[in-house]
Amino acid sequence: MRSKSGFTIVELVVIITVIGILSAITIVGMTVYQVGARNSDRASKVAVLSESLEKYYDKNGEYPSPRSLTNNYVDNSAQFVAQKLSVDTDILRMPMAQPGVENSFVDTLASEDAILYIAKSDVNNTSCQTKKDGGCDEYTLSYKEEGSDTVISIESRKKGRSAGLPTAPDEAPPAPELSAGLEGSSVVVESSETLCEAPLQPKYAFQHKINTGAWSSFSAWGTAVKYSIPGTAGNTYYFKAVARCDNGPAPGPVSAESAEESIVFPVGAPAAPVTSVALSGSNVVATVAVVSCPAPTTPQYAIRSRLNTATWSAYSAWSTTRTASQAVNQGVKYAYQAQARCVGTSTTSAAATGTEASYVHPISTPAAPSVSISTSGTLTTWSWPAVSCPAGSTPRYQYQSTADWGYTSSWIGPSTALLNNWTTTNQGYEYTRSIQAHCYNVNTTSAWSASSTRSYIRPIAAPGAATGFVSSMSSDKRVLTWTWTAPTCGPGTVYNGIHKYHWNEGKADEWHPAPGAQGYYAPKAEFKVVGGVPHSSGTRMRVSVPYACVNAATGRSSAWGPEATSGTYVSP
User: Is residue 515 part of a domain?
Assistant: First the structure.
C-alpha cells in the first residue's frame, strides 16, 4: 500500500540508478570531447611547425638540425627555437606537456605530449645530426594521437640533395677575418669576403659575447658580411664568425672559426663633480657630490687641495672615496678641487674636472690694545704695543676721537701704526681717543676688539699781570676811576679772564674788595670808586687786580695770575 507522504524504497532505487547512468554517459561524452579537442590542437600546432620548417628551408636552403631544435639540450629554449622558426613560443608546447616543458621537440617519441623531429642529410649527415648550426636535407614530424596511440607524421616537402639538387663543395673555405667598429649606439663587426667559385655563394654566421659572459649561439646563415648588436658604454664585445660556400640550397662545409675580434664601447666623461667644503669639529672637510655613470660603469674620484694661494697638491689616487679632510687653523683658506671618471671592466672615460670650492676659517677677535698717552707741547700721542694675532695674520687698528666741545669723529683706519697724534691746542678741553684692534690676512678679517679709551685735558695757563694803570677823578670828586690793560688768555678760553679788585685808601693794612666786582667778566679793565660825598683833598687810594683764564664751555679755569697794583692816587 503506497504511503500518502512519499516514494517507496523500490521507486527511490530506480530513480538513483537512472541518474547514475545519465551521469556516466555525460562524463564519458565530455572526456571524449576533451580528447578530441587536444588532438585537434596537436594537429594544428604540428601543421604550423611544418610550414615554418618549409619557410626556413626557403630562406636558408636547408632544414634545421635536430641538435638545434630538440629539448634534449638546455640551450634549445622555447625562446631560441621559436625565434629560429619564426613562430610564437606557445606553438612549441603540446597539450598535456609536463610543467616546465615549454619546448615539445624531442628525438624519441614516448607520449602524446611531444613532437618527434627526425632529419637527415645524404651528403653530411654527421653535421646534420650533431651541430647546432648544421643543416639537413629532409625531415619527418610525428606525434601521437591521444586515446588511440596512432602516430601521425608529416614529411618535408623538399628532398634536398636526395632530390638531385646541386651539391656543395667538399672543402671548407678559409676562416674569415674580422674587424669591429662602432655605428651610433651599435657595435658592428664585419667579415672579410669569402671567395667561392661560381656558382657557389658565400654565407656567414656570427656569434658574440659581452665581457666575460658566455658566447651566444651563431646567428642564422646569411649573405651579409656585417653583424651588429646594441652597445652599452663600458662593455667589451668579442666576436667570432664562420663561413661556407653554398650551392643554391646545398650548404657547403663550414670554415674554421675566425680569430676573436674585440672592441670596447667607449664611456663618455661624467658631468663635472661639485665639491662642498665645510667645518666639522676641528677639521675642514671637502665632500664631492655623486656623479652619474652609465651601467655597468661606476664612478671614481680624485681630490686635490691647497692652502691660501699656494700650489695645488697632486690629485689623490682614483677611488670611490668622495671626502678629504685636514686640521683647521685660523685665517687659512682651504681650497679643494675634484675630478670624476666612469670606470668599466675594460675601459675608463675621460676625467671631468669640477670647479674650486673653499672654506676660510675665521680669525678670533684679539684683546683690546693697552693704550698709554703722552703730551709734548701742543701734541698729544696715544700709543700701544701690538696685540697678539694668530700666525699668518697681522694686527691693524682704528681710532675714534671725541672732545667736549661736542666733536665726535668717525672711526679712522684701519692702519698698522702703533700710535697716533692729536694737536691739543685749545685749553680747558678734554681730548679722548678710543682704540680698537683686529687681525687680518688676505683671506679674512676678525671682528674689532673692545675699545681702549684714554683722555687728555689741556690745562688752562694762568694769565699774566695787568699793566698800564691810569687813574682819574670826576670834577665833583665823587667818582675815582682806574683803567688798565688786561692780560690775554690762551686759545680756547672764551673770556679774557676773571678778575677781582682790591683797593685801599692809603692804609697799608686795609684793603677793601670792590663790592660786586669779583667774578667772571668779559674783557674789562676799569674800576670806579663812587663816593656819596666828594673825596676829601689828600685822600690816598690805589687798586690791586689779579686775573684768571676760564673756558666757559667746560667751566674749567686756570690758577690766579699775579696781582698787579696801581700807583697811589692822591685826591686834590
Answer: yes
